[in-house]
Amino acid sequence: MSRADYLSRLRRRGLDQAASKSRDVHTLSTPTIQALERIAKSSGPLLHLPDEVETEYRLEWRIAANHIRVMLCILPMSVASILVVFGETLLGMPEPLAQSMRLGFFAIALPFALIPAAIGWLWPHSPAAGALLAVSGLVSLVWMNVLLAQGAALGYPIHHALLPCIPAGLVLLSGFRFVPVLGLIGGYLAVDQLAMQYLGTPPRTPTQWVGEITLLAILAAAALWMETTRRRSWAALRLLQLQAHQDPLTGLRNRRSFEQHYDVVAAQARRDGKRLLFALADLDHFKKINDRYGHDYGDGALSEVAVVLSQFSRRPLDAVARLGGEEFALLLYDCDPAGAQARLDALVDQVRALGIDNEEAPLGVLTISVGGVISDGSLPMSELYHSADQHLYAVKHRGRNGARLGPIISG
């Protein structure tokens, strides 16, 4: 196998797979991370994130926008209620029009405003609240067009400029995505045309149409810009979060994330009376790989070894991390000494079986040395690290390519 073929295999098997094993909420696959990096640096329109995080983004933004959406339901109805009660006195509204406003307010507008407000308040993660808010806006448009038609028939003209306030408020404040905004604008135009055709609302002048279409176009452009900005900012923030928890090359946990996970697992082990396997693994003669084959080859080797390590960390409380350079850590929950030794030996065998070329090493391939200890979770990770490191050093001293498990230690 040529070096180019082998590098391709490493990238295919390593970079694409290493982060796909045993991930938690802090970790993402390598292709997704790379896509987020491109998005954070891009400048063009952006309507979709990688599939792995699109649902997460929508949920987070839905919850973040929930309070303003609830206010969008309540505030206009509060203003409308004042007009319903004092319309005749404050605005000189004819009695038939005032009665029609009261009927439409209590029978149509108010229920359609309170329902999405209640759903948004009680279930902020539900997409139904946003959908019902858009429906509420369209229902309010129908109601206002009815009032416009009745006002014109009674000689009490109501200015049509009130109508665009509804899509403007929804677009600028609700946080709707661009595609739903286009649907909302289309719904606005459809309601407007149907109202003129069937309700007899006063027609617009050409100048008024130009102004209204211009406003709607500006709203659409604003929605596109706001969504692009939100998504790009979210991608940058997600990358910052990942840097605190995930090794960018292998997709494994980093030291900080591993230490935090150990504290949780150790506490669980103490409660359950279980034992933990803590192991340190170090690639043998790894510097020779970088010196002979280059750092790209070395990075691919690290990623493929990470795939092997991830296969030993499948349960929720297990963990594997890249601590730095060619050093890795493994934590297995509820692991007895006999099972621990078997797993460490299997790890050594599987890494050697990868057949990663390392011609200057004694065996001609990349190998790994492992030192481990069993604990009851009563000791801090620093003490386990020190003990496992001593056993790792013993393996290195006697020729590498092996595993050594120390006795059970406890506080």
TrEMBL record:
What transmembrane ranges does the database entry give?
Answer: 68-91, 103-123, 129-149, 161-189
One GO molecular function term of this record is: diguanylate cyclase activity
Q: What SUPFAM superfamilies does UniProt report for this protein, alphabetically?
A: Nucleotide cyclase
Q: Which PROSITE patterns match?
A: GGDEF (PS50887)
Q: What class of enzyme is it?
A: transferase
Q: Give start and end of each GGDEF domain.
A: 274-408
**Biological processes annotated in GO:** cell adhesion involved in single-species biofilm formation; negative regulation of bacterial-type flagellum-dependent cell motility
The catalytic activity, as recorded, is: 2 GTP = 3',3'-c-di-GMP + 2 diphosphate
The family database entries (Pfam families) matched by this protein are listed as:
GGDEF (PF00990)
SMART domains attached here? GGDEF
**What is one term from the GO cellular component aspect held by the record?**
plasma membrane
The protein's required cofactor(s) are namely:
Mg(2+)
EC number of this enzyme: 2.7.7.65
Q: Which UniProt keywords apply?
A: Membrane, Transmembrane, Transmembrane helix
Report the protein name in the record: diguanylate cyclase
Organism this protein belongs to: Fontimonas thermophila
